[in-house]
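Hey team,

Filing this mostly as a record. A colleague (T.K.) asked me to run one chain through the structure pipeline before their review meeting, and I want the input and output archived in the tracker in case anyone asks later how it was produced. No errors, nothing strange. Just documentation.

Input sequence:
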Amino acid sequence: MDIQTFATDGWACPGKPLMVRGDDTSCSEVQMSPLSKPELDDALDARKARLQHVATLKPIEVRAQHWRNIRGTTDHCVDARFLRGWTWGKEGLVIEVAPRRHSGHRYYKVETVDDCRDLASADTIRLTARSGDAAVCGRPGDKLMMKDESTAELRRIAAAAGAAAAVPPQSHVSRLALERGCEISKLAPLP
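Output structure:
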């Protein structure tokens, strides 16, 4: 596993925000300690030895039919254009849609593939279908995207004034969650 470090302004300093990521695992805080010259040399040698033993496979070519757009009914799909609101609670994510456009169903429960705990801190959500259509059915590739707009307006104003340093960093939703979103596994209307 190759580990990447993300730090404010590229500087990893004790007491400053720091994130370490390896594969799909992220840690927001780590303990740092200085290494002596011999310890650093040993760590670099161990990393080089691990990287030399990585097997590289020949390129593969996938031959398959083009994945057609998926159409769905309002019993198991939501038209993302008519999303009115959402709430996050002990039942998970419940979205509100226009009932007139969804066979009388106003509320749908949304389940995600992975833990989507950053959702509780998001300001805005958006449903996206893998096919690019408005119908989100919980099929592979359908996603729940999050936006943290808590500082977006401040950033826009500060950028116009040239005072980016006065704006606090995004604080609620991790950058990784904002970029990747959460894959939807199931959508079901609530009674």
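Quick notes for T.K.: The CA atoms of residues 39 and 45 lie 10 Å apart. The helical segments are 37-52, 152-161, 175-180.
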